[in-house]
Amino acid sequence: MEDTIWMPTWQKLVNKLDELGYDQLTENERIWVNIRDLIDSFNDGGLISYYYNHGADYLEDMMDNLKELGAANILELVVKLNQLFPNGVPPKDIDARNDIISSWEDESIDELLEELDSEFDELVGELEARLVPVIEQIITQ
């Protein structure tokens, strides 16, 4: 997150999340947390890093948030990645997700992940722009 104007609000939100939990966040706060987690995970190690970290504990919410933001192109990438998991549904449990990810040995999976990362990289700026109105609503509350 590069806009320092938002940092104090972001820090308050992170503190609220830590102290009160995800369920106590407002809808807009959840959107910001979920989408920011997706973006930050991608920046830290590609889309797959979202899944082997706790962000994917809220995968369904994040996917709904992408729909709400009109980011169907990014949602499509997430759905493609989900298809790598049994029945196309990543487990909610982080350890179960990581066990599955660790079992992948096929080079074609690595190629797909690289392809998805490349596509996501082209779209991430648009996603961040779609997030701005949500952040502005939080700041003005």
What portion of the residues fall into strands of 2 or more residues? under 5%
Please tell me how large the radius of gyration is: 15 Å
Strand element count? 0
Overall helicity: over 70%
Mean pLDDT: 95
- List the uncertain runs: none
Please state the structural category.
mainly alpha
- Could you spell the SSE succession in H and E letters? HHHHHHH
Distance between the termini: 20 Å
Biggest β-sheet description:
none
Number of helices: 7
Which shape, going by the Cα principal axes? globular
* Tally of structural domains: 1
Explained architecture:
The chain is 73% helix and 0% strand. The chain has helices at 7-20, 27-45, 47-51, 59-68, 72-82, 94-103, 107-140.
Write a concise synopsis of the structure shown.
Pfam families: DMP19 (PF14300). The chain has helices spanning 7-20, 27-45, 47-51, 59-68, 72-82, 94-103, 107-140.
